[in-house]
Amino acid sequence: RLLIIDFGSQVTQLIARRLRELSVFCEIHPFNTVDDAFLKEFAPKAVILSGGPSSVFADGAPMPPQSVFDLGVPILGICYGQQVMMHCLGGQVERGHGTAEFGRAFVKPTGQALDLLQGWFATDREQVWMSHGDHVSKIAPGFEVYGTSPNAPFAITGDPSRHFYAVQFHPEVHHTPNGARLYENFVRLAGFKGDWTMRAYREEAVAAIREQVGDKKVICALSGGVDSSVAAALIHEAVGDQLTCVFVDHGLLRKNEAEEVVGMFRDHMNLHVIHADEVDLFLGELDGVSDPETKRKIIGRLFIDIFQKYANQIEGAEFLAQGTLYPDVIESVSFSGGPSVTIKSHHNVGGLPEKMGLKLVEPLRELFKDEVRALGTELGLPAHFIGRHPFPGPGLAIRCPGEITRQKLDILREADAVYIDQIRKHGLYDEIWQAFVAILPVRTVGVMGDGRTYDFACALRAVTSVDGMTADYYPFSHEFLGETATRIINEVPGINRVTYDITSKPPGTIEWE
Ligand code: XMP
Known about the structure:
Layout: E1 2-6, H1 12-21, E2 26-30, H2 36-42, E3 46-49, E4 75-78, H3 80-89, E5 92-94, E6 101-109, E7 126-132, E8 135-138, E9 144-149, E10 152-159, E11 164-167, H4 179-189, H5 198-213, E12 217-221, H6 226-239, E13 243-249, H7 257-268, E14 272-277, H8 279-286, H9 292-311, E15 317-321, H10 326-333, H11 352-356, E16 359-361, H12 369-378, H13 383-386, H14 406-425, E17 434-448, E18 451-464, E19 472-473, H15 478-491, E20 495-500
Helix pairs in contact: 5-6, 5-12, 6-12, 8-9, 14-15
């Protein structure tokens, strides 16, 4: 394994990304959890020191244990990681004072060959992305300079005899177009064969779950989303019937969704699934509620109560399975963000484990979303299931602004099904991050045949996004929109007007509430 010591850079995750693309298995650990004992136990084959927002001059500046440099393994320092290396190995770092550099820069070779740079300088200069205030002013003994930029005379430094390398720029970002080559060279000279595959991951994960769980019981809140589905399938492979899933049907699901999810897991994959039909309870408590945050809070609270009620029926359950992903883990250890404003209360079962005295099983903690999808495929989940758009925990409640009624939910389910059918038929589903219909709390007048109608208006939403944090509306053709509107109005009684939402995020959010 390769160890990435995280000093808090916004882009540390991208380093892991680049390494995974090279089929190298790595783990990111925050600097303050890495000490001598940790290093001994982890026994990394190579180490990368990430960038970070700090200055080596700051009081208590983040540092790795000195012993990392005595492991005898290749080390690559990036940006702040470079400064750390110079600081720890006898070089010198100076404060910014007019030499700060942010953005695009060009690095020129100094003429000496370096194994790390093989095949890198395709022309006489390479574009890189810089983001630093302080800079190295004297390199450590044993190091030489292999690349310079106008503001970073020590842009690329290295001591090939120890396989220590340190660069001032960020090779992991998109704006360093050939950065992947540096990582490739680094892992190759560290002896990685690039043989890390999903099959290997599956085998390791199954063994680790067996070891953790032993002969105890595990419960899992199955939502039908990709993450909880893959986690459940993996844990089932590891411990079989020791796993029980609870699928909470809150009456806010899409057309046929409950049957599809429960049917697939219960009948096709032989998982033990409890179908908790709590539609009356949820819709009863939501009756007359129109404030979005109140809706979210009611659903979140009931969900936990109900899950707990069913889980209590499973005697001797000691573990709770969760589909936590790598980005969630990193976010929770990152110290870059300040206090942030709550835009929406997100629906999750955090807090449950302590309340119920359960331990967590989180077999996806080391994976990115697309890797989870690959693992799902490896585990035999059907492709259409794995490629499904995200669906929020509060479900259709937040696609029904204003008061929620059974009638509105039924209309919404039908309209949504027609819309998604249209998108699939036109081959657009996989190009879109998320698409859905929202039913609006207004009725408008229309004319159908020779009669007057007075029905609900709806809005179609479709966005492209990479992570759901920012999004753009999808540019459907007018023909597609026209055809879809006609179909919805003809096929869905209760809707007589269709609009298309062209708001990006920000300033909008993806969901309507
Ligand atoms: P917004 O509407 O905040 O949504 O732009 C961003 C992404 O998050 C999903 N979403 C949720 N997912 N629980 C979830 O599991 C929630 O409470 C929740 N609220 C929004 C939303 O569908 C989109 O993919």
